[in-house]
Prior knowledge:
Residues 2-67 form the RNase H type-1 domain. The protein is an alpha+beta fold. The chain has helices at residues 16-23, 33-44, 59-71, 83-89, and strands at residues 8-13, 47-52.
Amino acid sequence: MLSKGYKRAMIQTDKLDVVQALTDNGLEDSGITVLRRVQRIMRSVGQWRIRYIPREDSTIADQLAKLSLAWQSSLQVFDNAFNAVLEALE
């Protein structure tokens, strides 16, 4: 995201332990390299936030993410909603 020029990001996940690990400044000196790198990126440039979203509140985003993995393209525009999304909304 940084290489594409984005300065702000809101990351939403249903993994509470990930949110806690990334927002706990006391873990900056932990031995987990990937955790330190992500924390450094989140502090360094722009506004980066990570937020916990319960799984039951993220079903539509989950369906869209799964569909996007099958398309192999960075952008899709739709005139109508997919059945999987419509079913998740019900």
